[in-house]
Amino acid sequence: MNEYQSIKFHMTDDTVKLPSRATHVSFSQTARLPMQPLPQPRLTAISLFVFGWPLCLAYFSANSTGMAYANQTDSVPQAASTVEDVKALMQAGEYEQAIAAAKQQVDKRVWNESWPRLLIEGYMTVGDYDRARSEYEVAIERFGDSIPLRLLGVDVYRMTNNAPQAEKQLDEIETLLRQSPWRYSNRSNLVPVGEFYLMRGEDPKQVLKICFDQAVKLDPKNIDAHVATARMALSKNDAQVAAQSLDKALALAPKDPEVLYLAAKAWNETERGRKEGFLQRSLDSNPRFVPSLLYAAETQMDSERYDAAREILNRVEAIQSRNPILWSLCAAIAHLTGDYELEGNARRTALERWNLNPAVDHTIGRHLSLHYRFEEGAEYQRRSLAMDPNYAPARTQLAQDLLRLGKTEEGWSLVDGIRQSDPYDVSIYNLKQLQAKLAKFTTLEAPGFVVRMDAKEAEIYGDDVMLLLWQARETLVPKYRAELQEPIFVEIFPRQQEFAIRTFGMPGGEGFLGVCFGRLITANSPAALQVDSNWRSVLWHEYCHVVTLQKTKNKMPRWLSEGISVYEERQRDPSWGEQINPTYREMLLADDMVPISRLSGAFLNPKSPLHLQFAYFASSLAVEFWIDRFGMQGLQKLLEDLSIGMRQEEALARLPGSLEILDQEFLEFVRDKAKQMAPSADFAPLPKDPSLDVQRWLAEHPNSYFGNRQALEISMKSKDWASARKIADHLITLWPGDSSNEGIYWKLAVICRELGDHDAEYDSLIELSHRASAPREGLLRVTELAKDRQSKMMVRTSEILQGIDPMSDAVQELRSLAAEQTYDPHTARNALRALLALDPIDPASILYRLARASIQLDDRKQAKRYCLQSLEESPRFTDALKLLLELQDSANDKPLPENR
Ligand SMILES: [Zn+2]
């Protein structure tokens, strides 16, 4: 079972047991729990069931929510005479009609509290909070013992800036529950009672068990109970429980816009396609459903498509002009686009109706953090907590922000606090599990770095990690004229799940090798991955993010940061980083090739994993283009402009003159690149004909890349090695740049091996090792063939192998031998230490070799220690004994140098 998975609930109680005292300590004796996390969205989520006028949006833009309803009475359709009818109008977004219908019934003083509730919900939905309050004050006189009505009153008073009255409604509910708990244990009250307990900060697990689960048990078709469960589970990051409840809710109400909206949220992280499908269906059901519109705007913001987001927000404004989340998102967009004055104004508007609404600053901060602006994001969470210290979403987000900023002590102590008061939150539960694992990690320190690794891994290649990071710092910091806030924290995880929890707060994200947050790098160790990759290239890439993110104070578009990192990988080693291939070539030449100004969207909203990978490559080409056109200085200028908060569009347009020119020139650049890739090759696809005779096709199209590939496959399969070699040679002439691990150079090597031509096999493998990023098998074969060849090549090969699989003793043995042969005692010592940590069969000989390497490093004291240890393992090991005696003799002549 997955130790980081969600916590499940099991209902054990058969009877409904309401707590006798409805206070925050009645469920548990723990400290007061965080406030229910969806105050504002919750308000909409509960009340948005109800709204809808068929009037055009213009009627309700800005401040026109006043007089319009009163005159609607005549237009109430005859059919809307029952509560269900009016709910249906609300669900369809016919808010104005729903209000008019409910008003009619309220005016008739019908004895049914559903009518004033629907009316108040209607007014709240269209943002007419004052009318909602007047209606509430009348209704509560008549239906003072209605918990759903009182809960609505909480929202009503909050949105009319009357916190004491809002609190008073909660106190009244508490009194009602204390006086006659039996009255509220029926199916219609269990859900609102549960909502109340959540608002009071009770243990959500208990609320689920005692209220929502019981409500479902009494009535499996109770959609409100399913929705309440889903909403609560989502607020605790428990997508699994949410999805289960939503499945049931969807079966009952497949067109309910709220259910569809929540389903979109549940699929958010895991399946983008499903998320978008549900969101679309929600808006098809009700194009004026505010939570879905806000969520759609947020999705656009995630892709840095701020204009599209603003357009959607304008639609929300036309429905509910003073919605706090609407204005919070406006403030976040303003911040992200450097318009700080607008940001302040939007935030003020967001807080106008409820000036201590913690959701406002939390929402702004969350969006800043999503764009790597953790410092500012954390500041906003602190502001949110100043308004409500128990506001759970802000506490969780702040903990994550701090951990990502490298402020681990404060971050972990916050995690501890949240975990104590909220044992349910799945992301916090996972973080706590991770913390216990991290405590067992080894910490390695060097100027500029604090590296945390699994203890065993640190023993085996920790020194190599430190060396690589030091080289990255020496190369990239001066190149980008960056001044870093140090140390940089690097955490390397031997299990992918731990990497994911630390990085995303949740399991998942299998495609990621490493992530950089500005001052923190998290990375998978090779042991954590299913595929071969080179940890050196990963750390180089991530460290380059450190440099560029810090240089711009995290104010850079995603594509630029990725593009520079991939570009710098290739600069360091041409076999690192994404390289062109026939698929990319086609994508570069396609009509829908993304221009520079829209590259970020390619990361944030990719059509497929291939498109995401291509986004890295295309961005690196954009950087190459920029440097080609404006020089390294031009790139520094761009980063400096962004760091002072200049809008991306403006900064990008400065040197080329305009965005249009930039996009045009970039497209020409990439098309040239694509055409230069293999000018004599014909990349036209083969006809889709199963009976195609490839040989005949090749007679007419001798340079067809795909034709030759197919012919090669056929020859290899039929073991016609002589023909295969001819085709492989021709393919290399057509496109010498194939860099895939199992590409043409690997195939040619296999063919030559079969033909017994080991010289040619070796040459092809060397070509492969210069181009491919992790050709493990090819490299291992090189080491077999290279025994009597130049050992420099062995050193290089074993170093690449160590980048792919440092935990392999065979690899470390090769590396140590190669280093010994080339008199590289430093590498020899690292490799031998690694071997020693890998529980070797013959530790005495490794210790002896370590002693020899130490002598070459002028560390005789350590050499002597290794000799003694070797003899301890094998007392009759004469070579070690001899060496020890030599060391003793020389020690009599001169003092031994100090240990280094
Ligand atoms: Zn990256």
Element layout with pairings:
Layout: H1 39-47, H2 83-91, H3 95-107, H4 114-125, H5 129-142, H6 147-158, H7 163-179, H8 187-199, H9 204-218, H10 223-235, H11 239-252, H12 257-266, H13 272-285, H14 290-302, H15 306-319, H16 324-336, H17 340-351, H18 358-370, H19 374-387, H20 392-404, H21 408-421, H22 426-438, E1 442-446, E2 449-453, H23 455-479, E3 488-493, H24 496-504, E4 514-516, E5 520-524, H25 535-551, H26 558-572, H27 582-589, H28 599-604, H29 609-643, H30 648-654, H31 659-676, H32 694-700, H33 705-717, H34 721-734, H35 744-755, H36 758-771, H37 776-785, H38 791-804, H39 809-821, H40 825-837, H41 843-856, H42 860-873, H43 878-893
Parallel strand pairs: 2-3, 3-5
Antiparallel strand pairs: 1-2, 4-5
Helix pairs in contact: 1-4, 2-3, 2-4, 3-4, 4-5, 4-6, 5-6, 6-7, 8-9, 9-10, 10-11, 10-12, 11-12, 12-13, 14-15, 14-16, 15-16, 16-17, 16-18, 18-19, 18-20, 19-20, 20-21, 21-22, 23-25, 23-40, 25-26, 26-29, 27-31, 30-31, 32-33, 33-34, 34-35, 35-36, 36-37, 37-38, 38-39, 39-40, 40-41, 41-42, ...
Bound molecules: zinc ion (ZN).
